[in-house]
Amino acid sequence: MEELLYKVQERFLFHAHIRIKIPAAWPDTAFDALYAVLEEADKKYNSYQPGSYIDQINRHAGHFVEVDGETVSLLKQVIALSDLFDGTYDITIMPLIRLWGFYKDSNRRVPTFEEIAAACSKVNYKQIEIRGNQVRIAPGQEIITGSFIKAYATDRLIQAMRQKGINHAIVNAGGSTIFALNPAGDPWQVSVDAPDTETALFTLNLDNAAYSTSSQSTAFVDINGKRYGHILNPKTGWPAKNRMTGILSESALIGDILTTGLFNESPENFLEKMRQINTRHPASGFLMGEDNAITATPGFLQHQA
Amino acid sequence: MKKLTSLLKTTGLAAIGGLLLATGASAGDDPVKEQAAAPQASEITAAEQTPEQAANSVKQDAKKKDKKKKSHKKTGLEKKRPERASGSK
Fold first, then answer.
1. Residue A197: how many CB atoms within 10 A of its CB?
2. Assembly ipTM
3. How many CB atoms are located within 10 Å of the residue A297 CB?
4. Rounded to two decimals, what is the model's pTM?
5. Is the CB of residue B15 less than 8 Å away from at least one CB of chain A?
6. Nearest CB partner across the interface for A294, out of B23, B58, B60
7. A136 CB within 8 Å of a chain B CB
8. Which of B2, B57, B69 is facing A224, going by the closest CB pair?
9. Residues of chain A whose pLDDT is less than 50?
10. Which residues pair with B8 in a beta bridge?
11. Residue A16 forms beta bridges with which residues?
C-alpha cells in the first residue's frame, strides 16, 4: 500500500513552534482556519497577552473583572484539576516566577528565604473568586497560564479538526504538547527525547491521544554555575528537583497540568497520585527523578512502540 | 534509542503498582547519564552570594536565546514519521 503524504505547517505561537500535519488532500488554506483557533485562544486567554481576559484579571487584582463564559469555564476546569494535588500545582504562582527571574530576564538571582516566604504567601489558587461571569483574585496575586494555555488551545484545535472531518493528523505544540488523530489501528509515534541531550530515549505509540511532557532542562536560570529549573514547587518556593515527566491522556489540558503538578513528587507519590487521578481522568505516564531513574505507571509501558 | 521495557528494573515500587526503570546501564551509551545532576535546592543558601554577585553571574539558557521566533507559513510535504517530544511549558 502506498504511504500517505501529509501537508505540514509550522507557526510561532505561545512562545513555541506549533506544527500541524494533515493529510495532503486538504488545501493549503485549511491551515489558516486551524491556526486561527490557536490564535484566538492565545489572544483571549493567555496571561502573557496584554488585554487578554486573564491579563485583565491580573491587572485588576483585588477587584472583580467581567470576563467571557469561556474564561469562567476554563478557570473552573483548571481549578478542579488543581484540586487533584496538595498545592503542588497552582496557577497563581506568578509572584514566585517573577522572584526567580523566569520572566523577562529580570532579577535573576537566588532569592532570600524571606523573599520566597513573601512570594509564597501570595500563591493560593483557592483565593480565585468566580461570581457569574466575574472573576477576582486577591491583591498581589497573579495568574500565569503558561502551564496549560497551549494545551487548552490544542484541545480546541483538535475539536475543530474533528468537526472539519480531519481525522488523521498530528499537532506538535512546541514538543511538550502533542495530540494525534488517527484511524483505528494506525497510531502515530512520538520519540521521547532525553533531557538536555535531545537524543531519543524511547518511542511511544500515540493513538487518538495527547502526550505532554515537562522538563527542567530547557528553561532554567544559571546562577553561579548552578542550574535552577523553571518548574517551582508552589509550597516551598524552590525549583523542583526531578528532571522530566511525561503523561499520555485523552486531553492535552489534563496532560499538561499533570506533568507540571506531578513534577515535585517522589516516585512513590507519583504512582499513588496517578492511581488516584486515573479513577477520574484516564492517564498514564512516567517521572524521571534527579538520579535519572524513570518511574512509570504500568499503563504507560503498554504504549511503547 | 532504547526500548523502554528493555530498561526495566523492578523494585519494591512494583508492589504498589508501578515500575522503576533505569535509563541506561553505562554512561557511555546513555545520553541521560552524561548530564550533570539536577540542582539540589536544599543545598542552596541565600547567604552564599550577594545579589550583585549573583546577578553578575546569571546566564541565560543559550538554546532558549537562539530560538528563532519565526512562522513558516509555507506548506511542506511529509510522510508519516515520529514526532519529537521535548521541551517544557
1. 15
2. 0.88
3. 23
4. 0.85
5. no
6. B23
7. no
8. B57
9. none
10. B21
11. A13
